[in-house]
Design brief:
The longest helix is centred in the middle third of the chain and has 14 residues, at 40-53. The chain is 39% helix and 20% strand. The chain has helices at 40-53, 63-73, 83-94; strands at residues 6-12, 21-28, 31-34. It has three helices and three strands; from the N terminus they run E-E-E-H-H-H. Strands 1-2-3 form a three-stranded antiparallel beta sheet, covered by helices on one side. By secondary structure, it is an alpha+beta fold. A hairpin with a 2-residue loop joins strand 2 (21-28) and strand 3 (31-34).
Length: 95
């Protein structure tokens, strides 16, 4: 957690079953801000809320990922897309 500014962590159960976790949470600057989240998908959506609520910038290495979720999947501020995200959106639409 100390190596990254923010992110989602997943702790797998010891039995190693896919889809079963001991904990899923969100951390910011090495501190856990949310834990016991139900699924990785919920954690991704909640991460957008944490970023918005704390007025943070998207992590540089994940900015296109979060931009895609925010603007394409959630339809928030979707008219202004970066070229990379617009290209991905077009590829998905033409499928």
């Amino acid at each position: 957690l100390k190596k990254h500014t923010m992110g989602i962590y997943v702790i797998n159960k010891e039995d190693g079953q896919n889809g079963h976790y001991d904990d899923i949470g969100i951390f910011v600057e090495g501190e856990i801000v949310m834990d016991n989240i139900g699924s990785p998908a919920q954690a991704c959506a909640l991460m957008l809320g944490v970023i918005y609520a704390l007025n943070l910038a998207y992590p540089k290495e994940l900015r296109h990922y979060y931009e895609f979720i925010q603007k394409v999947l959630m339809g928030l501020d979707g008219e202004k897309l970066s070229p990379k995200v617009l290209g991905l959106k077009n590829k998905i639409a033409t499928g």
